[in-house]
Design goal:
heterodimer; A: about 475 residues; alpha/beta; D-Maltodextrin-Binding Protein, domain 2; two-stranded parallel ribbon; B: about 300 residues; mainly alpha; MetI-like fold; about 75% helix; about 0% strand; flat
Chain lengths: ~475, ~300
C-alpha cells in the first residue's frame, strides 16, 4: 500500500512538473493589432446592392448582413482613421456591417493561421499574392473569385497584377487592388553636404553601381559609421535587400516558372562580396526593414533600401511631412543601382482582397459584395488613394482611376516603368524568405560567401520541394 | 473518524478541487494528450489539401537530424545551465543580505527586484532593445565615451554577444520572485535553532549552511524547478529581440516558428508537437533530478 502511494505520488509529481512546464512559461507577448475598431454602426438589414456599381455582378438573395475583414497594414490601409469613412460608406450603401480588424506584420500570419486552424477565418483579407495565392489559396482556404472578373475587367486591370493574383490553373484568389514598385531612398541633404550630389540624377532617379558606390564612399568619408545597412534581423522588408543585391549585377532569384530558387549565381555572390567589403555598408542582424526605415528617418542611416511611395509620402509613418527626415533633411527616392546601360528592376508589390472559404454561402456572397465595392466600383479610386499606392486598374465601371497627388503622379512616371515581375509566389516562399535573411546574417558574420549562398539556396529549394 | 465522516470530508474536498480540476484537465491535460498524439502524425494547417496521416516516430527521428533543432537545443541548454545557478545564487545572496532589514527599506528592495517581474515582458524587452541599440543605445554610448570600446558593438546582431545579452535580460526578469521567496524563507527559519547554534559557538557561515540552508530546501527546490522551466521556455525575448537569429534560436522559439510560420511545410504541426514532447521530457528529467538531489540533501 505504501509503495502504491509512493508510485502515485511520483506520478502526480511528474504530472505537475509537466503541467508547470506547460503553463509556467512567461506568456508570449501578443502585440495587439494596431487598432481594433468597434464595429460600424448597426446598419439597416442587408439587402442586395441597389446598383451594379456597388455590388457583385449577380447578387444572390442570401447575403449576410455582417462580415469580418482583416487588413494587413498595407500603406495607408494600416490607418484606421483613413479607412473608416470608406467602410462607413460601404455599410450605408449596402447595409452590410463590417467588423474591421487591423493586423500587424509581426504576428498577422500567426493570427490568420490560428484562425484557419480553428475554423474562425475572417470573410475578407487584404494582403499580397504570396499569402493569398501561394499559401492560403493553393492550400484550399480561399474562394475562387474568377466569376467576379469579366472581359472588361481583364482589359482594365494591370495584367501583371491579375497574373499575380491568379494560380497556374486559372483560379483567382486575389482581386488586385493596388500596386507599387519598391525602391530605395537617400538623404539628399547629407549627400549634398558630402559633395556627392553629382551622382544623383533627380530627373531619371536611376543610377549605376559606380555612382552608388561613390555616393556611399562620400557619405562614409563625411559621416563615418554606417551609411546604409543590409538589414537581416528578420524577413520584414526583405524585398529591399533582395532588389539591392539582384540588381547590382542583374539577375533573377527564381526561375521563370516560379518553382525553384536560383540565387546561387556569380551575380549574387559578387554583389554580396562587394557590399560586404564596402566601407559604410554593414550587414546588420539587429535591424529589420521597419527598423531600417526608423534609423533612416532619424538621420542615423543616410540610405534606406526599404522604401516606396507610401514611405515617401509619410516617412516612418510619423506624420512630419512628405519626403523629410525627422530633422527636416530632404529624402530622395531612387531606383536600385545597376550596371551601366542596364535598366533597374524594382521590387513589385501587389495587394488586393481575397475571401476565405468559410463554408457559409451568405457570408461569401457578402464578402464578394465588399470586394466588388473596393476593387471594381466608382469607390476603387478612393480605396487606392487611401493606400498611397497605385490602383491596379485604369477604369472601373466607366470611371477613370488615377491618383491626384503630385508626388504619386511623379513617382508613378519615374518608378513604375521599372517594376519587375512578381516572383514572391514561388513555391515555398515563406521558407525561402527565412533562408534569405539567415544567409545575409551568415555573410555578415564573415562566413565564406560562395558556400553560404549555395547552402541557403539549397535549403530554400529543399523546403520548397518538401512542401 | 467514522467512515461516513471521511467520505463526507473527501467529497467536499473534491468539490473544492473541481473548478481547478476542470481548468487543469481542459487547458493542460487534454492539450498535452493532443500534443503527444499529434507528434506521431504529419498534422498541418492545410488538412484540406494534405490530410493528416500517422507517421509513427518519423518526426522524432527527423528532429535528431535537424541542425536547426540541435542548435536550438544547445542554446536552450546553455541558457538553462547559465541562468539557473546564477539566478539561484544571486537571489540567495540578495535575500540573505536584505531579509534582516526592516519596514520600508526592505519593501523598497523587494520592489526594486520585483519590478521587472510585474512589468510586462514586452515593455521590459523594448527598453532593453533601446539600451542594446547598435547606433543609439546607451550601452555603446557609455562604453565608447569611457574609452572601453572603439567601435560600437552590435549587441543583438553579433552572435558573439546576442545570446549573452538575452541571458542577462532573462536574469533580471527571473531574480525577483526567488528573492522575495528567499526573504520569506529566511524570515521563517526557526530562530531558537539559530540561537542554540550560536550559543554552541557556531560561526555565521556554519549557522547559515548547517541551520538555515536545510530549512530553506523546499524553497530552493521550488526556485530551481521554476527557474529551470522558465529558462527552458525562453521565448518572448527571442521573438522580440532577434527572431531566433544571431545564434539565439531556442527550442521554444523553433516550436513556434515551425508551427505558425512554416505553414507551407507538410506536417509542420506534427513536427512542432514532437519538439514540444522532447522539450517536456527534458524538463521532466531535469526536474526529477532536482527533486532527487534535494531529497538526498
Amino acid at each position: 500500500m505504501k509503495k502504491m502511494k509512493k508510485i502515485l505520488a511520483l506520478v502526480l509529481a511528474l504530472t505537475m512538473v509537466l503541467a508547470l512546464s506547460a503553463c509556467g512559461s512567461q506568456p508570449a507577448p501578443t502585440p495587439a493589432p494596431a487598432d481594433t475598431p468597434a464595429p460600424a454602426a448597426t446598419p439597416a438589414p442587408a439587402e442586395p446592392p441597389a446598383d451594379d456599381n456597388t455590388g457583385a455582378d449577380e447578387p444572390t438573395e442570401n447575403v449576410a448582413d455582417a462580415i469580418t475583414v482583416w487588413v494587413y497594414p498595407v500603406g495607408g490601409w494600416g490607418d484606421e482613421a483613413k479607412v473608416k469613412p470608406l467602410i462607413d460608406k460601404f455599410t450605408a450603401d449596402t447595409g452590410i456591417t463590417v467588423n474591421m480588424e487591423w493586423l500587424a506584420y509581426a504576428d498577422g500570419d500567426d493570427k490568420v493561421n490560428a484562425a484557419l486552424t480553428g475554423g474562425n477565418a475572417p470573410d475578407v483579407i487584404m494582403e499580397g499574392p504570396e499569402r493569398l495565392v501561394a499559401n492560403w489559396g493553393v492550400n484550399g482556404h480561399m474562394v475562387d473569385l474568377a466569376d467576379m472578373i469579366d472581359d472588361t475587367d481583364r482589359e482594365e486591370i494591370l495584367p501583371a497584377a491579375l497574373e499575380a493574383g491568379t494560380t497556374a490553373d486559372g483560379k483567382v484568389y486575389l482581386y488586385p487592388m493596388f500596386n507599387v514598385a519598391h525602391c530605395m531612398a537617400v538623404n539628399y541633404t547629407a549627400v549634398k553636404e558630402a559633395g556627392a550630389e553629382e551622382y544623383i540624377d533627380l530627373e531619371t532617379r536611376t543610377w549605376t553601381v559606380e555612382q552608388f558606390d561613390k555616393t556611399v564612399e562620400a557619405l562614409y568619408n563625411k559621416y563615418g559609421g554606417t551609411v546604409a545597412a543590409v538589414y537581416c534581423a528578420g524577413q520584414g522588408g526583405d524585398q529591399g535587400t533582395r532588389e539591392l543585391i539582384r540588381n547590382r549585377y542583374g539577375t533573377k532569384l527564381t526561375n521563370a516558372e516560379h518553382t525553384a530558387y536560383t540565387w546561387n549565381t556569380p551575380e549574387v555572390i559578387n554583389a554580396l562580396t562587394d557590399l560586404k567589403n564596402m566601407p559604410g555598408i554593414d550587414f546588420d542582424a539587429s535591424l529589420a526593414g521597419g527598423d531600417e526605415i526608423a534609423k533612416f528617418y532619424q538621420g542615423v542611416l543616410k540610405m534606406a533600401f526599404c522604401w516606396n511611395a507610401a514611405q515617401q509620402l509619410d516617412p516612418n509613418q510619423a506624420g512630419t511631412g512628405e519626403g523629410k527626415t525627422l530633422s527636416g533633411d530632404e529624402i530622395v527616392y531612387m531606383c536600385f543601382p545597376t550596371q551601366e546601360g542596364k535598366d533597374p528592376e524594382e521590387g513589385s508589390g501587389v495587394w488586393g482582397l481575397g475571401s476565405f472559404d468559410t463554408g457559409d454561402e451568405a457570408r461569401i456572397a457578402a464578402a464578394k459584395v465588399f470586394i466588388k465595392y473596393m476593387c471594381d466600383s466608382e469607390h476603387c479610386s478612393e480605396a487606392g488613394d487611401i493606400s498611397n499606392f497605385f490602383s491596379c486598374r485604369s477604369m472601373a465601371e466607366g470611371v477613370e482611376i488615377k491618383s491626384s497627388n503630385p508626388l504619386l503622379v511623379e513617382y508613378y512616371s519615374k518608378m513604375m516603368p521599372y517594376m519587375g515581375e512578381y516572383y514572391q509566389i514561388t513555391t515555398g516562399w515563406a521558407g525561402a524568405r527565412t533562408e534569405w535573411w539567415n544567409m545575409l546574417q551568415r555573410v555578415g558574420a564573415g562566413d565564406d560567401i560562395a558556400t553560404t549562398v549555395a547552402t541557403y539556396e539549397a535549403n530554400a529549394n529543399a523546403a520548397a520541394n518538401a512542401g | 473518524m467514522s467512515k461516513e465522516l471521511v467520505r463526507r470530508e473527501n467529497t467536499s474536498a473534491y468539490l473544492f478541487l473541481l473548478p481547478s480540476l476542470i481548468f487543469f484537465v481542459g487547458f493542460v491535460v487534454i492539450p498535452m494528450v493532443i500534443c503527444i498524439g499529434y507528434s506521431f502524425t504529419d498534422a498541418n494547417m492545410n488538412s484540406k489539401t494534405n490530410p493528416t496521416t500517422f507517421v509513427a516516430f518519423q518526426n522524432f527521428i527527423q528532429l535528431w537530424q535537424d541542425k536547426t533543432f540541435l542548435g536550438a537545443l544547445k542554446n536552450t541548454f546553455l541558457i538553462v545551465l547559465v541562468s539557473v545557478p546564477t539566478v539561484c545564487l544571486f537571489s540567495l545572496w540578495v535575500g540573505s543580505a536584505i531579509y534582516k532589514l526592516k519596514g520600508p527599506v526592505l519593501s523598497t528592495f523587494r520592489c526594486i527586484f520585483y519590478l521587472p517581474v510585474v512589468t510586462g515582458s514586452v515593455a521590459v524587452t523594448v527598453v532593453w532593445k533601446w539600451m542594446y541599440d547598435n547606433y543609439t543605445g546607451i550601452l555603446n554610448y557609455v562604453l565608447s565615451r569611457t574609452g572601453i570600446i572603439e567601435n560600437n558593438i552590435n549587441w543583438l546582431g553579433d552572435e558573439r554577444f546576442a545570446l549573452w545579452c538575452i541571458i542577462l535580460i532573462l536574469f533580471t526578469t527571473s531574480v525577483g520572485q526567488p528573492i522575495v521567496l528567499y526573504v520569506s524563507a529566511l524570515g521563517n527559519v526557526d530562530h531558537s535553532l539559530v540561537e542554540a547554534a550560536q550559543v554552541d559557538g557556531a560561526t555565521n557561515s556554519q549557522v547559515f549552511w548547517k541551520i538555515k540552508w536545510p530549512q530553506m530546501m523546499p524553497t530552493t527546490l521550488y526556485i530551481l524547478v521554476i527557474t529551470t522551466i522558465n529558462s527552458f521556455q525562453c521565448f518572448a525575448l527571442i521573438q522580440l529581440l532577434t527572431s531566433g537569429g544571431s545564434g539565439t534560436n531556442t527550442v521554444m522559439y523553433y516550436i513556434y516558428y515551425t508551427a505558425f510560420k512554416m505553414t507551407e511545410q507538410v506536417g509542420h504541426f506534427g513536427y512542432a508537437n514532437a519538439m514540444g514532447v522532447i522539450l517536456a521530457i527534458f524538463i521532466g528529467i531535469l526536474s526529477a533530478i532536482q527533486f532527487r538531489l534535494a531529497k538526498e540533501k
